[in-house]
Automatic annotation (TrEMBL):
Sequence intervals crossing the membrane: 12-32, 79-103, 115-134, 140-159, 198-215, 221-239, 251-275, 295-320, 327-344, 350-375, 395-416
Organism whose genome encodes this protein: Lusitaniella coriacea LEGE 07157
Protein name: Glycosyltransferase family 39 protein
The keyword tRNA-binding appears for this protein: no
Domain of life: Bacteria
Length: 529
């Protein structure tokens, strides 16, 4: 019997820790055109060129302008030093983070809903809108998400370990009490010290906090989850039985670990001065610029992209509310907080959806759990009769079938997008070939799409390594600022294609000192005379 249990444990270990992560890595690498696509997003070009500039000893804040923490840039520059400076190497790095996210998510769902539903939930996440695209795009969101999910998994492991330890102590006390009763001796009181239980597992809290602190140094858009972590870790229901300090001690340990990690990394990389970055993202002036953007409509469209998950999540909420453990409230509160955050944020991009899709898929899995008994009975895996008292399981089963039908459609949409990327990449690589013809005499490339600079291995002025729509719209990139950069760097080549707000102010300079050698659509390529 013991041998069978051990074999089962080994099989499950291989399945969830080796097979599923490896399968996802291979599928994403095969399904997505990782090596053929010029850029999945212009943000890729920014991250790639920042890593190159950093490797050339340009520094953040004083030289490289950026509105995000620099950790991915630093990691990527060292990654290039080991595996070579290429788009493929960078995308494989992000795919490694994505695989970590898949593994962590699967482990979380194993705890919450069991092995079968963990597999189902992980598959649903993989085919959710834009997840595969983000899994191979050189952007800062996925590394932050991966480490956040790892932090959540470690917190869940901590809570489970503490619960098991308390049960063991209670069992031990029960045995001692029984023996003393048999000996007709008085039974002393053996109180459980919650603080000692926390200290015995404090390494898990510290590790979770470290992971979250690192996640914030990749991208700070997960900072809204801090109150949720504290809510899960605090045991305020027992304040009458223990001191308040003991009930909030786990949360304090976690906060101290996350805060210390974030601070130490900030000191090491010179990224602690984040006031200007935060002000740039939340300033009312920036919101006023995007007056045509409607965050409520954008959030609604995001939810409609995985409408089948939304319906299953609605049923999942009913399941969660019947459970007593706070950990089951995690996805519900996460979805509420992220929705509230995005409703008050401008502008919204497609990659923000991952803040919704993760808790939405998690919640949808609870809805799927209601349908599992029906499918088991119908398929002959269970002889338990189906209860007819509730209609929710039948609705959940119908929605599961609807979701299965939608999967080929979602994968078809991704394939269609990949074909568009391939067609667009042909034009982009043609521009790169034109750049390379003049590379011998080129020291600087002035462009609003730094992907061209990365592919041609030419530096851009570090001040415009990040020339985003938000930065241009904020009014920071003025005519005086652009002309000053042109005078400072005297770029031999200029390529503009994204922002008329950049092209028009320097048009007189282009007409006076540059020759246009290429124009197609919005792309204009100039060479200095």
């Amino acid at each position: 019997m013991t041998s069978k249990v051990q074999k089962k444990d080994i099989t499950l270990f291989i399945l969830f820790n080796i097979f599923i992560p490896t399968l996802f890595f291979c599928f994403a690498f095969w399904f997505m055109p990782v090596g053929e696509t010029f850029l999945f997003d212009t943000d890729e070009g920014q991250e790639l060129i920042k890593a190159v500039l950093y490797a050339k000893d340009f520094t953040f804040s004083s030289q490289i302008w950026s509105d995000q923490p620099p950790l991915l840039t630093i990691v990527l520059s060292h990654w290039f030093g080991i595996f070579g400076t290429s788009v493929l190497a960078a995308r494989l790095l992000i795919l490694c983070f994505s695989t970590l996210a898949i593994w962590s998510f699967c482990q979380i769902l194993r705890f919450c809903l069991g092995n079968l539903l963990a597999i189902v939930a992980t598959f649903l996440l993989c085919v959710s809108c834009n997840f595969l695209r983000l899994s191979v795009s050189v952007m800062i969101g996925m590394p932050a998400i991966a480490l956040t999910l790892l932090s959540i998994y470690i917190v869940i492991s901590y809570l489970e370990n503490v619960h098991i330890s308390q049960e063991k102590i209670l069992l031990k006390q029960s045995k001692i009490f029984t023996r003393r009763q048999q000996a007709d001796s008085p039974s002393p009181h053996y109180p459980i010290n919650p603080l000692s239980q926390v200290l015995s597992h404090v390494i898990l809290l510290l590790f979770s906090g470290v992971c979250f602190g690192i996640a914030l140094q990749f991208k700070m858009f997960v900072i809204f989850l801090i109150p949720l972590f504290c809510f899960i870790l605090c045991d305020l229901t027992k304040i009458g039985k223990m001191k308040i300090a003991e009930s909030i001690f786990p949360a304090l340990i976690w906060l101290l670990s996350a805060g210390t990690t974030f601070t130490l990394l900030g000191i090491a990389f010179g990224s602690l001065n984040l006031g200007s970055i935060l002000n740039f993202h939340v300033s009312s002036n920036l919101k006023d610029v995007f007056v045509r953007e409607n965050s409520a409509i954008d959030v609604l469209v995001m939810f409609l992209q995985d409408f089948d998950y939304v319906l299953l999540a609605g049923i999942g909420v009913a399941v969660i509310l019947k459970k007593r453990s706070k950990i089951h409230l995690f996805p519900l509160i996460w979805l509420f907080l992220s929705t509230l955050l995005l409703l008050n944020h401008k502008p919204l991009w497609y990659h923000h959806y991952i803040l919704l899709s993760l808790p939405l898929t998690w919640l949808a899995s609870y809805g799927v759990s209601l349908a599992v008994p029906i499918f088991k009975t119908k398929l002959g895996f269970s002889r338990t009769p189906i209860a007819h008292s509730s209609i929710l399981p039948k609705i959940a089963a119908g929605l599961c079938i609807f979701s299965l039908v939608a999967i080929p459609i979602k994968l078809g949409v991704i394939q269609w997008q990949n074909q568009l990327f391939a067609k667009e990449s042909q034009d982009k690589f043609a521009v790169v070939n034109n750049i390379l013809e003049y590379k011998e005499n080129t020291h600087w490339l002035f462009t609003d799409n730094p992907g061209y600079a990365f592919y041609s291995n030419i530096l851009v002025p570090p001040e415009i390594a990040v020339l985003s729509r938000k930065r241009v719209a904020s009014g920071e990139v003025t005519q005086e600022y652009l002309n000053a950069l042109l005078n400072k760097y005297q770029p031999e080549q200029i390529i503009l294609e994204r922002f008329p707000e950049v092209y028009e102010p320097i048009r007189p300079e282009l007409e006076a000192n540059y020759s246009k050698i290429y124009e197609k659509g919005s792309t204009r390529h100039f060479v200095r005379r």
